[in-house]
Amino acid sequence: MLNQTVARVTDRIVARSAEGRAAYLDRMARAAQEGPARAHLSCSGQAHAYAGAGQDQDALATQSAGNIGIVTAYNDMLSAHQPFERFPELIRNAARAAGGTAQVAGGVPAMCDGVTQGTPGMELSLFSRDVIAMAAGVALSHNTFDTTVYLGVCDKIVPGLVIAAQVFGHLPAVFLPAGPMTSGISNDEKAEVRQKFAAGEVDRAVLMQAEMAAYHGPGTCTFYGTANTNQMLMEFMGLHLPGSSFVNPNTPLRDALTDAGARRALSISHLGNEYIPTSQVLDEKAFVNGIVGLHATGGSTNLLIHLVAMARAGGIILDWQDFSDLADVTPLLARVYPNGLADVNHFHAAGGLGFMIGQLLSAGLLHEEVTTIMGQGLGLYTREPRLKDGELTWEDGAGESQNDRILRPVSDPFQPTGGLQRMDGLLGAAVCKVSAVKPEHHVIEAPVRVFHDQDSVKAAYQAGEFEEDVIVVVRFQGPKANGMPELHSLTPVLANLQARGLKVALVTDGRMSGASGKVLSAIHVCPEAVDGGAIAKLQDGDVLRVDAAKGRIDIVTEGVLDRPCVTADLAANGFGQGRELFHHFRTLVGAADTGASSI
């Protein structure tokens, strides 16, 4: 039986979204009726579309078994996307074997927050999601495709591709992951070296050696940040093949899944045996399932922004209260770094997403009656892929956890509620990732130190200015101010202060990423400082109380709200590292709690 809270939240999302969702579905129905324009193009137009197709040229002109549009985030600078170099040829071969064709419709940018962390380039990160959606839209605008395959992994890439897939929701969409790199040194070892470097205890050579041992080959980073949270969501929401998220790159099983994904994309086109457009897959129930998966795994805080934006592209309106209510009834079933010591390879080996989906279904915490790219029912996603004599099959997954330090059943969770918390109070609304924060740090009341950028925090730390309990406030970091960069480079500094025995918390209208961990952090504060939010009225020495247990951010000092808002000179945010190109994005972007979208 479906959990009453899950049912209630779903019903109110349906009611809240009714008008917009109906209009969206009507548009998708009309687009499906019109079909792809390939057959209706002029001879010149068709010749242009097929001229580069090589051996598939005649098939495109004369056959109608289906043409796959591939949208790829391939580049060979980022480990997570480097494996996609091989995918188009694998997909083309699979399509030919099934009587169809495949073409790379276009590429989309893929940037890494880990590379740009703490640099001006990070201020383009959130906006890159909207650019990716737009670029995918351009790729598919030729209207010559019967179905689509999306190749993307990391932070903004998958959400941007999902937004595009919703806009082209009359077409089926199969998302094919690259998989995580094999395990290097433990994430805990890496974090320890980072903290020692921040404290001046080791030099840069030692830091570099540790980083290279952690990030050592092709594939996604192995900690449970935004990239791997994205992969989890694609399974919970029915856009991946079952069990495909965490299979390592360049392995026979990974290649077999890529082949199967291409074939499945053809079979669910309007020319195949089972038409399943994306607009049918990504409904209100699918998004609720995704939110439950987010909580059960202790996933990235970034998804509280991305899921809202992804849903709106399909006429579905989510708000942070939906996330909070679902967190209250969703147990935390996984401990993956930064919420534990294991990485995603260990999680996958312990039973992975198949085990977790089975557990949540049995507890009535997921909608089973959903449409997925595999057909009807989320129960299909409790199975695991296997290669037998070179043939891909799916078998029932593990009936029990293979390591209860990493993955637990619903009957014995790591904690009874989810890993993310909505925060409210006079300061505004915010979110907090509590799954990695020890219970003794869930409530922090202390004076604030106010900063307007993360470099100033680091400078104050290096100058020895933090000697007492403190709540570090970093404001003018919201989407309108500077694109809402992640402030993850503050993690070693704050963790060191906490390790000294100080009570420490972070409050910001910026982001902290899926890698945020040990230190209590109230992030995504809305309204942001540049919009006149109360965070712009704080002064050094004001006392705040951040209470993750109650979901509150309270201003203890009296009279704060009576002050005028502080303003900041943001001129420097407009130039350098491409920021000039994003002026209109900063002008048009919405608030974090509505998806921080500029499209």
Automatic annotation (TrEMBL):
GO terms for cellular component: cytosol. It holds the Pfam family ILVD_EDD_N. InterPro entries: 6-phosphgluc_deHydtase, Dihydro-acid_dehy_C, DiOHA_6PGluconate_deHydtase_CS, ILV_EDD_C, ILV_EDD_N, IlvD/EDD_N. It catalyses: 6-phospho-D-gluconate = 2-dehydro-3-deoxy-6-phospho-D-gluconate + H2O. PROSITE patterns: ILVD_EDD_1 (PS00886), ILVD_EDD_2 (PS00887). Residues 67-378 form the Dihydroxy-acid/6-phosphogluconate dehydratase N-terminal domain. Pathway: Carbohydrate metabolism; Entner-Doudoroff pathway. Binds 1 [4Fe-4S] cluster. GO terms for biological process: D-gluconate metabolic process; Entner-Doudoroff pathway through 6-phosphogluconate. SUPFAM superfamilies: IlvD/EDD N-terminal domain-like, LeuD/IlvD-like. Residues 406-596 form the Dihydroxy-acid/6-phosphogluconate dehydratase C-terminal domain. GO terms for molecular function: 4 iron, 4 sulfur cluster binding; metal ion binding; phosphogluconate dehydratase activity. Keywords: 4Fe-4S, Carbohydrate metabolism, Gluconate utilization, Iron, Iron-sulfur, Lyase, Metal-binding. Its EC number is 4.2.1.12. [4Fe-4S] cluster binds at C154, C221. Its cofactor is [4Fe-4S] cluster. Catalyzes the dehydration of 6-phospho-D-gluconate to 2-dehydro-3-deoxy-6-phospho-D-gluconate. Belongs to the IlvD/Edd family. This is Phosphogluconate dehydratase. The gene is edd.
